[in-house]
Each structure stands twice: as structure tokens, then as C-alpha cells.
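Hey L., structure's done. Input below.
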Amino acid sequence: MSTKTVTENTTGKTPGKAALASFMGSAVEYYDFFIFASASALIFPHIFFPSGDEAALVMSLATFGFAYVARPVGAVILGHFGDRIGPQKVLMFTLLLMGAATFVIGCLPTFEQVGWLSPILLVLCRLAQGISAAGEQAGASSLTLEHAPDHRRAFFTSWTLTGTQGGQILAAMVFIPVVSLPDDIKYSWGWRIPFWLSAVVVLVTFFIRRTLHEPPAFEEAKATGQIAKMPLVPLVRDYWRDVLRVILCAFVAAISTVFTNLALAYGVVVGLEQGVTLWLVVTANFFALFTQPQFAKLADRIGRKPVFIYGALSSAVLMPFYMLSMSSGNMVLVFVLAVLTFSCGYAAANAVWPSFYGEMFSARVRFSGLAVGTQLGFLLAGFAPAIVAALGGVQEGGWVVIALFTAVVAVIASLSALTARETKDVPTDTLGIRIIPAK
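Output:
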């Protein structure tokens, strides 16, 4: 038996298994989540709203953002139960909820069939997706962090977000043949297939995730009666600064939603085919599968803060060049800049935030802290495509609006990160511990 195996058995930690379960769970969740993103840019304006003009596109992109309204509510509820009954149990629930909501979307009637009831039902399903996603990343990140060895926490937790890249790739790959279908097929039943297929991947991941144990730190706290009855109370009382810090840092996620959602619509406006814009997402996310673990390893060596700040600022610098390249006619340049912007820029921040944010909190409130902080910050990310589209981001010359928006959120996230404590050398069992002054 290897030394690694002995260590895992004697400590009760299974970092590899936790990382795999987090990767697969995130892949399923974000396959479902980004199927909706692709459809909201390319399909839904034509079938769930009165017309296929720019107003329909803005409304469709807004439905994408509604999930982010539900996410803070889901964060409070699921964060509470995650810290009370354990992250593994909550993660099983989030998986099934996301799968059910996605499958139902594929069964919804169109605007032509039932009028405004159609987008209302779409929003309700999207809200369910948002509640599910609120618990998925926070729970998976908390669980993996607590299973990981002290000196490799960034690496193991990064697989949670690398799973989102896998989900995005799968979603885009499924949508590529859909958008190539004739319009009468694509807008009638063709678009439904990707939503129905989610049932298959949900079942596969369910059987992987159900064998994963709760983190040893949670089991110990449960055995000694140290579980917080109302985790939100100590979180707000003792960690409000960290929650605020995470909210502002999480603004960086708007760069991702602009890249993977709004850019699809902008690319079509400036002359790219729908299939090409989807291949840009696939390519950038494919390379991120390899760059994110490397950025995470770097964060384990030099710290979370410098890697996170580099990711935020570099992606903001590269974004205008990427958007401009879409109208250049040079496909090689477009794909190179897509990879540089997302896989070599934003991927650094994306890889590091699960450990960076999670290490601000103690195990007693980590799930709640991660869930509430990230989901409040992600509100901006969710509505970023609709906001930028309303400001003219999907018109000719809209790259200026997109570039300015991403620059602002990157600077806010970076300045907030600068105020955080560097935690790469802090032992896991002492993370987030607050020293209460004597009275």
C-alpha cells in the first residue's frame, strides 16, 4: 500500500475521490446551466418571446440572469443545511434538482402555443437551476478543500471549477449540431434534445457521488457537538468582512458569462456563424481543462492572491482584442485570442477562487460563507449579458461597452483580493479561526 493511501485511510481524507466527485458534479450542473446559456443567446429569442428582434434577445438574456436572483436564496438555505447535515447530502439534492429542472425545460410549450405562460414557466425552471447551482460549487469546494492535504488545497479544489469547463464543453458540443439543423426542426423539437440528454449524465454522476463520505472535519464536529445550529449567525457576526470580500471578488465571474454567453450573440452580429461562436467556447474551455490545474499548482507555491489578481486583470486586458478580432475575418486570430483571454487569463482566477474564498472561513461556517458570498457576487455575473446587451454591447461597435464593463469588474475584484489574508501556508484545521478578545 502506498504512503498516499495510508495517509488517506488514517486521516479519513480522500482528496482524489472528492476531486473526482466534485469534477463530475460540476460538469453535470454546468452542462445543464450552460445549455440554458447557449439557448438563451441563440434559440429562446425565437420561441419563448413575441418576436426575434433585439428586445426579444434582451429578454431572453434576462431569463439567464434570473437564476442568479435565486442563487442567494439558495445559498442561505443550502448553506445552512450544508453546515448542519453535511455537504455530501446537500450535493446529492442539488444534483437531482438541476437535472429535473433541465429536463422539464426541454418539455415546455413555446410562446406560439401558450403565449406569456411560456416564458413564465421558463423563468420558474431557471430559478430552480439557480437554487441548485447555489449549493453545488460552494458545497463541492468546501468538501474537496477539507479532504485535501494542506499543501495542495488549491490544486484539488480547482477540479470543482475545471468540472464547469467540462460541462461547458459538453453543452457547446451538443448545441453545435442543433444550430446547424434547418430552422423548422431547430425551433420545433431539435433544441429540446440537449435538455433531455441531461438525464443521462445526472444518473451517471449520482452513482459516483453517493459513495463519497462527509469530510472528517465535519464528522468530528458532529461527534463533539460543535455543529452550529444557525450557521448564518456566526457567519454574519464573525465573518461579515470576509463575506463582503468574497462578494466583491466574485464580480470577476462576470467575465466568464460575458465570454460564454454575450459573445455568442455579439459574434453573430458581426458576421460569425453560430457554429463558429460555439466552437470558440469549446476551444477556450478545452484548453482551460489543462491550464486551470497548472494555475492552481502555482497558487499552492506562490499564493492565491497573485494568481487570482493576474487572472482578473489579464482577461480584462485581453477581452477587447478578442471582441475586435471577431470582425477581422481572421479565424486563426479569433481562436488564439479566445484561448488567451479565457484559458490563459480568466482561468487563473477561476482555478484559484475555490481555495481562496473557502480558506477565509472556518469549517463551521465554510459552506455558508462560500455559498452566500459567491452567490451575491454572482448576481452581477448573471445579469451582465443582459446589462451589456441593453447598453449596446450586441450592436456594431459594442466591443467598447463589453471591454469597459469587464475592466471595471476586474479592477473591483482585484482591489478586494488585495485586502485578503494570504492563506496558502495556513493549516486546514486553523483556517478562518477568529480570536475572541477577553472581556
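Residues 54-85 form the longest helix (32 residues). Residues 1-10, 435-439 have pLDDT under 50 and may be disordered.

-- N.
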